[in-house]
Amino acid sequence: MVPPAGTPPPNPQQIQQFLSSVLSQRGPSALPYAEDTKWLIRQHLLTLISTFPSLDPKTATFTHNDGRSVNLLQADGTVPMPFQGVTYNIPVIIWLMESYPRHPPCVYVNPTRDMIIKRPHPHVTPSGLVSIPYLQNWIYPSSNLVDLVRELSACFSREPPLYSQRRPSPSPNSNPNHNPNPNPNPSHNQSNPAVMSNYGPSPSPQARPQPARPFPPSPYGGRPQPQPQTEDQTEVFKRNAVNKLVEMAHADITGMRKAREVEVEGLFSTQALLRRREEEIDRGLKELQDEREGLEQQLQIVLMNSDILEAWVRENQSKNIDLKDLNVDNAFECVDVLSKQMLDCTSADLAIEDVVYALDKTLQEGAVPFDTYLRNVRLLSREQFFHRATAAKVRAAQMQAQVASMASRSPHYAT
């Protein structure tokens, strides 16, 4: 069971127990934060409370603009605001949304009944939603709540977001931090319970439980004018210059962030290209390795044949052969009938090629009539065709016989 929003832990020890309890809840009462970020959320809140004790961690129901309600953590209290040598306390509520801390929290100024939000204000909307450069440039995981509150204090110091409807009359025995009206709920929030803004919906009245603590009056006094008529022009110029510098710094940071994002996208594309090339190189290396193995096998075959030929040469060198009486036709002996037939067909084919070449030469020299040349070429081509066809059939028969011989020599295994 999630502890009620109206009973926050009163001391640091109970604050730690409170956060550990609500962040360890399981089931329907569990807070909608990612499990891998709950420890970081707890550290952010503990560091915030130790740095700014005026802020208390609570849980409350946040109603989105679409009517969806969810139980969320919030830091409710005041933010110190130095203004013209006096430190004021600005009431705020910092909602830790479901996607926190990967996305920024939602900050609302929570004026009391006698306070009014300044209109127009560069960082606060009429509904109380705060928008400062730190929220817009939120970077996970370096951004945190302590730096956020410090930036809120600095921005509010340059441009206070609240002013009082009436100036309270101080008494000698009055506390400077005492507020005569203990009810912090603003009347205009009751008439406008939910307003859509740039960073999300404004919480409904039940989603914004208010602490019963007094707040000091606004530095603006009772007049609702944004700036007094007697304000020093030097201070106005200085404040405008600071605001201009902040805007320029924000624009520069935005441009740098976009440039870095483009650069990172380019690096990701280069990384993907390098990975594809790495895969191609790996495939090429594998193909080269396979080709190397094939060449090594062929080299072994060539070396084996070379040994056979060298042995034959050594065996026949001792024989005395009279080269003058050597018959060229008997220099080669065919091992079978098919080899003899292949030798005859190949020799006849090559002989016809020589005859056709000689006829071409004689035709060019004019020694043979053209009709005689055509007739002889036709006859020779027909004969050459038959020889080539016979050689193709013999070659097929030799391949079949070789396959059958290899199959007969291979070992047979019983199944």
UniProtKB/TrEMBL annotation:
Residues 336-404 form the SB domain. Its main location: other. One of its GO terms (molecular function) is ubiquitin binding. Residues 160-234 are annotated as: Disordered. Gene3D superfamilies: 6.10.140.820, Ubiquitin Conjugating Enzyme (3.10.110.10). It is found in: Endosome. Residues 169-185, 202-219 have a biased composition (Pro residues). Residues 278-305 form a coiled coil. Belongs to the ubiquitin-conjugating enzyme family. UEV subfamily. This is UEV domain-containing protein.
